[in-house]
């Protein structure tokens, strides 16, 4: 299946899953489970939420993870600092990479913004394979994040 068709299907599944629920915690928990179940060759999928100047662990699937990441540190913190999604082919070559799981080799991180433009946190997906993620994955996952954001009653602060 082409990446475009895969993400059309995945995002349709997310819409169905969230159609009768608006709770952000329940929705991020189910979203991480859906990602972990459907995307091949990943070892972690989940969320970090912004609290002041650090990201704190949210719902996820995979091995235990770092619970707090300073803004600007690692791939997740860099995505928040830049305000841009990051696709990292080899995390071990990324300056300041935080090895929550030494097996992770590539990563894609999507910052999450509310309707007023405030960063709420990030969607983070890791793979044990160098170069696992493509630009098509990045675009598909940005669409996934947008569905999640519009389908959830997000925290106010």
Automatic annotation (TrEMBL):
InterPro entries: FRMsr_CS, GAF, GAF-like_dom_sf, Phosphatase_reg/MetRdx. Residues 33-146 form the GAF domain. One of its GO terms (molecular function) is L-methionine-(R)-S-oxide reductase activity. It holds the Pfam family GAF. It comes from the Bacteria. GO terms for cellular component: cytosol. PROSITE patterns: UPF0067 (PS01320). Signal peptide: none annotated. Gene3D superfamilies: 3.30.450.40. It comes from Microbulbifer okhotskensis. This is GAF domain-containing protein. Belongs to the free Met sulfoxide reductase family.
